[in-house]
Amino acid sequence: MRAVVCTKYGPPDVLQLMEVQKPSPKHDEVCIKIHASAVTASDIYIRASQLPLRFLLPMRLFLGFTKPRKSIIGMVLAGEIESVGKDIKRFKAGDQVYGITGFGLGAYAEYKCMKESDSMYGCLSLKPASISYEEATAAAYGGLLALQRVEEGNISPGQKVLIYGASGTSGTMAIQLAKYYGAEVTGVCSTRNLEFVKSLGADQVIDYTKEDAAPPVGPYDVMLDTAGKAKDSTVKEQCKKALRSQANYRSIDDGKLELSSKRLVKIKELIDAGHLKPVIDRIYPMEQIVEAHEYVEKGRKRGGVAVSIKHPTMPHT
């Protein structure tokens, strides 16, 4: 099969498309024919190994020192179950699925074997029927992260919720989830994304690039920082000051992402019911994975960036 191999840590061009051995499922695994993956912030960190010093040594001990031990990276997939092991209960051949591979990585490939039970090595669910495989990758990554933080924030009807980084993969899903739970939503983004964020349902928008802008109109009950604590601005500090004294501040950096198939099922139901719509900025073929990484590293994407994996008519080994 074809797969994108990370030959060493470094810039996007360390990623190379190669022929590798196709995996076979164990008795407790499914083999997924992958139709789409995604380029996420997690993929960028793994490939470049550009982590804060306090995380760099532990992560290299876990992932590998000069290159990832798991040479095929990628954490998000959507595809079709090709075959199942004898102990599989939840899935059958032909099921369309989506999910996160976690520390198992391996999504930049034509096939991936995964367990059906949740663990740090992944979670899997039936794919929303109403969206494409590419859209499903944004639903899996951005949706899973946004839903976890929204639930942790205990968002309820009538609350005033501020979402910083509202145009990103998790931010676009967080806006829609907060609106679904009945909140009044203010989205914080750059100038070029103001109208886009409004179109997702935000009641108000704030331009973080304008430091002389009027202070955010609070007080806010919940602030969801989907840009991450490493990204700061004068407006972000103003937003924090506009929170109620007992307000709930949640960042995507607060603790690990919980790989939960139950949350994936909930996201599927909300999408198929028309309450959520994942956003895809661009779709790259797997052959252009280097260009996809270069684009995501610029930090200007709206929603997610998907990688389309087309399977050739002739089988690969």
Characterize the structure shown.
- This protein has helices spanning 41-48, 53-63, 133-152, 169-180, 194-199, 234-241, 261-272, 289-297; strands at residues 2-6, 15-19, 29-38, 76-84, 96-100, 111-115, 123-126, 160-164, 184-189, 204-207, 220-225, 243-251, 280-285, 304-308.
- It has 317 residues and is an alpha/beta fold.
- The protein folds into two domains: 2-140 and 279-308, Medium-chain alcohol dehydrogenases, catalytic domain (Quinone Oxidoreductase, Chain A, domain 1, Alpha-Beta Complex); 141-251, 3-Layer(aba) Sandwich (Rossmann fold), CATH 3.40.50.
- The termini are close together.
- The chain has eight helices and 14 strands.
- The chain is globular.
- The mean pLDDT is 91.
Order of helices and strands: EEEHHEEEEHEHEHEEHEHEHE
* Main structural class: alpha/beta
Strand content: 25-35%
Within CATH, the superfamily of the largest domain carries the name Medium-chain alcohol dehydrogenases, catalytic domain
For the biggest sheet, the summary is:
7 strands, mixed
Keywords:
single chain; 317 residues; alpha/beta; Quinone Oxidoreductase, Chain A, domain 1; Rossmann fold; 2 domains; 7-stranded mixed beta sheet; 5-stranded parallel beta sheet; globular
Question: What is this structure's SSE topology?
Answer:
Elements: E1 2-6, E2 15-19, E3 29-38, H1 41-48, H2 53-63, E4 76-84, E5 96-100, E6 111-115, E7 123-126, H3 133-152, E8 160-164, H4 169-180, E9 184-189, H5 194-199, E10 204-207, E11 220-225, H6 234-241, E12 243-251, H7 261-272, E13 280-285, H8 289-297, E14 304-308
